[in-house]
Design brief:
The protein is of the alpha+beta class. Among the domains are: 4-64 and 143-153, Nucleic acid-binding proteins (OB fold (Dihydrolipoamide Acetyltransferase, E2P), Beta Barrel), CATH 2.40.50; 66-128, Orthogonal Bundle (DNA polymerase, domain 1), CATH 1.10.150.20. It has helices at 32-37, 66-76, 83-104, 107-111, 118-128, 132-138, 172-184, 189-202, 208-219, and strands at 4-12, 16-21, 24-29, 44-54, 57-63. Strands 1-2-3-5-4 form a five-stranded mixed β-barrel. A hairpin with a 2-residue loop joins β2 (16-21) and β3. α7 (172-184) packs across α9 (208-219). The protein is globular and about 60 Å long. 40% of the residues are buried. It comes from Ruegeria arenilitoris.
Length: 223
């Protein structure tokens, strides 16, 4: 199984790129959102990957984070959802958006992705709702694929390319921290995940402490 690739981009297409890893080229398919975040041709790149093997096909799919890869794996486990549909959902919502939509039961947000009908969107939310807390919690424990040096496995060229910049941290770590805090306070995984997801949707730039306060207000008894 090929779980991660680090190399240099030889070319980019609309939905895939060719990564040269010490003279071996790997074609990797990515979501629109991931493609937009990748550097240009000739620059170094590192992606987590998932290899799909069928009788007539071997195809690699690439992800910037383990959270994105895990959502891809879970989305593809739902009946009627293949790799292309999964990438369309991740491209439209991003991993944090998928977490929020599924935790909140917002199948309308999932349906907004290209190629996803209402029945499929509802099935995704129903099948994966209990998985959302676990994936959201991953946000505080995993690193981005492009963190750290890559020079050791990338062949130098002249002139040397600019070093790869790690992506700015997203809301995943703050949401994961808030989810953990609410769990420690005795809230169940599903209700905690729903509250954190709703708070993160209302306050996209909030830190962990602010998310906790907002989620606690949502969980407070009404009346």
């Amino acid at each position: 199984m090929i779980g991660k690739l680090t190399g240099r981009i030889d070319y980019r297409a609309a939905d895939h790129l060719l990564i040269d890893v010490r003279g071996v080229g790997y074609i990797v398919y990515c979501s629109d959102r991931t493609m937009a975040a990748l550097p240009g041709v000739g620059e170094a790149v590192s992606l987590y990957t998932d290899l799909v093997v069928r009788e007539d096909l071997m195809q690699l799919y690439g992800f910037l984070s383990l959270v994105e890869k895990e959502w891809h794996r879970l989305l593809c486990s739902v009946q009627g959802v293949g790799a292309k549909v999964s990438l369309a959902i991740l491209g439209a919502l991003g991993p944090d958006g998928v977490s929020r939509a599924i935790a909140l039961g917002d199948w309308g947000a999932v349906k907004a992705a290209k190629g996803v009908g209402p029945k499929t969107a509802q099935r995704i939310v129903l099948d994966l709702k209990d998985k959302a807390p676990g994936v959201m919690a991953m946000g505080g424990t995993v690193t981005e694929a492009m963190d750290g040096p890559v020079a050791e496995v990338v062949e130098p060229i002249d002139p040397a390319p600019a070093p790869v910049r790690a992506p700015k941290p997203g809301a995943g770590a703050a949401s994961a921290g808030a989810l953990s805090a609410l769990s420690n306070l005795g809230y169940g995984p599903s209700e905690a995940a729903s509250a954190v997801a709703e708070a993160a949707a209302d306050l996209p730039d909030a830190g962990e402490a602010e998310l906790i306060r907002a989620a606690l207000k949502l969980l407070a008894p009404k009346g």
